[in-house]
C-alpha cells in the first residue's frame, strides 16, 4: 500500500477520501417510506383529492395503486440504477397492502431494501358532485325567439353547443363549470349553468351560430367570503327569421343566409344578389330550405323550366332565374307559395 494512500477510518480499506464507498453507503438512510397513505376519492365521478384540491382521475385501480405506493417511497438523491418491484393484495375492502422491493446502487455499491405501504381508501363526495347533487347554479341561459318559438333544430343545436363548452372547460381543468340542468318549457329551453364563464361561452356561441342577441340580467344572490354573489340570467333571443327561411316582400322572394354580427344577410332569389340589413326584413313567411321539395327538370325553354310536381304529378312551368344553373334531367329544390300557387326555386 502506498503510504500516501488514504484509508477508511471505519473499516481500514483503501479510500480516496474519508469513508470508503461501502461504509458511506452503510451510513446513509438511502430509502424511507410512509407506512400508511390515505387516498380520498369521489364514489360518484372517481376524482381524487390531493390535500384540499380535487383532480379528475381516469387511470385504472392497479395503475393508481402503483402511483400511490411509489409516491410513498422516498429515495436518496445519490441512488443510481434504481429497479422497483411491486406486489399488492387487499386485506379488507378499504385497504390495500403494497410490498415494494427496491434494488439500486449507492456510490457504486449494490443496495437493496423492502418495505410495505398500506393504502387506506376513503370515499368523499367531491366539490363538483356536491354542487351538482345540491342543484347549485350561478345563472340560467334562456333560449327564446322573436315573435315565434325556437324550432327543434335550434333547441338541439343550443344543447349541443352547451354540452361542447361544458366538456371543453372540464378538460381544461374548470371542474366547477358544468350544466346543472336543461329544461324544455313552452317558450323555449332553459339551460342552468354553474359558472358565469360557462354562461358567457354558451350564450355567445349560440348567437354566433343561430343569430340573435343576448342580454344579461344580474340578480343579487348574497355574499360569500366577503364577496357579493350574483346569479345571471342570459336571455338569448333568436331573430324572427332563421338561416334558410324564405320570405316574400313586394312580390320578390328572399332567402336568409345568415343572422350573425347583429346584421341579417339575405339572398335575392330573383337576381341572385346578396343584401345586408341591420333591421329584420318585413315580409310574408314562405318556409325554410331545409324543408324544401325536390323534382327533376324535364325541359328548359329560355327562362322557363318544366318540372313534374311530385305531389300532383302535373307538369309545372316555373321561372328559371339566371343565378340558378341547372340542366335538363338534373334535380332542383323548391318551396311552394300556397297563397299564390307558385313554386320558388331555392337551389
Distance between the ends: 102 Å
* Overall pLDDT: 88
Rounded radius of gyration (Å): 36 Å
Strand share of the residues?
over 45%
Please give the order of strands in the largest beta sheet: 4-3-2-8-7-6
> What is the number of domains?
3
Structural class: alpha+beta
| Helicity, as a percent range | 10-25%
Which spans have pLDDT < 50 for at least 5 consecutive residues?
Answer: none
What would the principal axes of the Cα set say about the shape? elongated
What is the chain-wise order of helices and strands? HEEEEHEEEEHEHEEHEEEEEEEEEEEE
Number of helices: 5
- Number of separate strands: 23
What can you see in these coordinates?
With 347 residues, the protein is α+β, with helices and mostly antiparallel strands. 18% of the residues lie in helices and 46% in strands. The protein contains five helices and 23 strands. The strands form five sheets. Strands 4-3-2-8-7-6 form a six-stranded mixed β-sheet. Strands 10-11-9-13-12 form a five-stranded mixed β-sheet, covered by helices on one side. A hairpin with a 2-residue loop joins strand 19 (293-301) and strand 20 (304-308). The chain is elongated. The mean pLDDT is 88.
Amino acid at each position: 500500500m502506498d503510504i500516501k494512500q488514504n484509508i477508511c477510518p471505519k473499516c481500514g480499506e483503501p479510500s480516496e477520501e474519508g469513508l470508503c464507498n461501502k461504509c458511506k453507503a452503510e451510513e446513509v438512510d438511502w430509502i424511507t417510506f410512509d407506512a400508511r397513505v390515505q387516498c380520498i376519492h369521489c364514489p360518484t365521478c372517481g376524482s381524487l383529492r390531493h390535500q384540499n384540491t380535487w383532480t379528475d382521475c381516469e387511470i385504472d385501480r392497479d395503475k393508481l395503486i402503483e402511483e400511490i405506493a411509489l409516491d410513498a417511497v422516498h429515495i436518496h438523491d445519490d441512488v443510481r440504477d434504481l429497479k422497483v418491484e411491486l406486489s399488492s393484495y387487499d386485506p379488507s375492502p378499504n385497504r390495500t397492502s403494497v410490498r415494494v422491493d427496491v434494488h439500486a446502487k449507492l456510490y457504486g455499491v449494490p443496495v437493496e431494501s423492502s418495505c410495505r405501504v398500506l393504502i387506506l381508501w376513503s370515499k368523499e363526495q367531491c366539490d363538483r358532485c356536491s354542487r351538482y347533487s345540491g342543484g347549485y347554479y350561478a345563472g340560467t341561459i334562456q333560449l327564446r325567439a322573436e315573435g315565434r318559438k325556437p324550432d327543434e333544430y335550434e333547441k338541439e343545436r343550443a344543447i349541443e353547443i352547451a354540452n361542447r363548452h361544458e366538456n371543453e372547460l372540464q378538460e381544461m381543468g374548470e371542474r366547477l363549470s358544468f350544466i346543472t340542468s336543461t329544461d324544455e318549457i313552452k317558450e323555449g329551453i332553459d339551460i342552468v349553468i354553474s359558472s358565469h364563464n360557462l354562461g358567457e361561452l354558451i350564450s355567445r356561441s349560440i348567437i354566433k351560430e343561430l343569430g340573435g342577441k343576448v342580454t344579461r340580467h344580474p340578480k343579487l344572490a348574497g355574499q360569500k367570503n366577503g364577496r357579493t354573489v350574483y346569479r345571471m340570467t342570459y336571455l338569448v333571443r333568436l331573430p324572427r327569421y332563421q338561416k334558410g327561411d324564405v320570405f316574400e316582400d313586394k312580390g320578390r322572394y328572399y332567402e336568409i343566409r345568415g343572422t350573425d354580427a347583429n346584421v341579417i344577410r339575405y339572398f335575392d332569389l330573383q337576381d341572385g344578389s346578396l343584401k345586408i340589413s341591420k333591421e329584420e326584413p318585413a315580409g310574408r313567411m314562405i318556409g325554410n330550405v331545409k324543408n324544401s321539395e325536390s323534382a327533376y327538370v324535364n325541359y328548359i325553354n329560355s327562362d322557363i323550366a318544366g318540372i313534374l310536381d311530385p305531389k300532383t304529378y302535373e307538369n309545372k312551368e316555373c321561372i328559371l332565374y339566371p343565378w340558378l344553373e341547372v340542366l335538363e334531367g338534373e334535380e332542383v329544390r323548391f318551396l311552394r307559395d300556397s297563397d299564390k300557387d307558385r313554386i320558388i326555386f331555392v337551389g
